[in-house]
Input
Amino acid sequence: DELKWKKTVFILFTVLFALVCLVIGSLYLFKDEIKTITTGLTNSQPPYQCPGNSSRTIAEPASFNDCNCYTGHQRENDKCTKFVEKYKCPSNSAPTTIETASSEDCDCYDGYQRENGKCTMIETPPEPDVDYNS
Output
């Protein structure tokens, strides 16, 4: 009975030794991969943070696409800038600059003139009645 117990202990220690050797061998074989994984875990970049005037749409945003601009702000070059409504020229004029800020940046069409900041139709006086028969 004691011999049986000694054999069991011997087998258990042999198996345990084999497992330890297997683990050590695996660690040695995959040392580069393990180093890459552990380095990646310790040197990972901090999580992305949404810029000012915005809030995140998910718990951990990965980029600006996971952020929403606050009301009154617009998305522009990965930032949320205050929304400024651009001036639109009236239908009887055309913009003279890329960024129209007021009616001064609009040119009146032919047949219209600027009057008090607006383009009004030029009224031509009627031609006098001429009697060509006399």
Summary: Residues 45-83 form one domain. Strands lie at 54-56, 67-69, 73-76, 79-82, 93-95, 106-108, 112-115, 118-121. The longest strand covers residues 73-76.
